[in-house]
Amino acid sequence: MAFADSITINPGTGDVVLKRTGFSPKGVFTSADGTLVLELEQITGKGNTRDRITARLTLNKVVADVYNTTRSIPVSVSVYQVINRPKLGFAAADQISLAKGLDTWLLASTQAAITQLVGGES
Fold it and tell me: I need a labelling partner for 85 at 20 to 30 A (CA). Which of 19, 61, 72, 73 fits?
């Protein structure tokens, strides 16, 4: 079953509609200006014993080159959520709870954990 042909996401600057721009082997959704891209992928691992499910959100922009001020360069940043699971042993509810737990901790009301992580702490 595939996701809808458009997805609305809020990357912190307001709602952005992402239209499907790719389907196989992964779902790709892109904003009208191409700056925001969501990729959804499911891969079966070696030996057919594990699955890797990835949701990746990428923000693209063009910035001034600090080494050559006469030009600009494209840059991007991505955030991933990966579920790496064995074929057997974990129900969907287990996986959803685990992902939700990580999200809740990272994005708690003060956003302290994600702020520390982005700041280079481990």
Answer: 19
The domains of the chain, with CATH numbers, are 6-89 (3.30.380.10), 90-122 (no CATH)
* pLDDT 10s digits, 6-27: 999 999 889 999 999 988 789 9
Q: Please give the order of strands across the beta sheet that includes 50-64.
A: 6-9, 16-22, 27-30, 36-44, 50-64, 72-86
- Residue 10 tokens read as 């809020």
Closest by CA to 37, choosing from 80, 96, 84, is 80
Residue 1: predicted pLDDT? 59
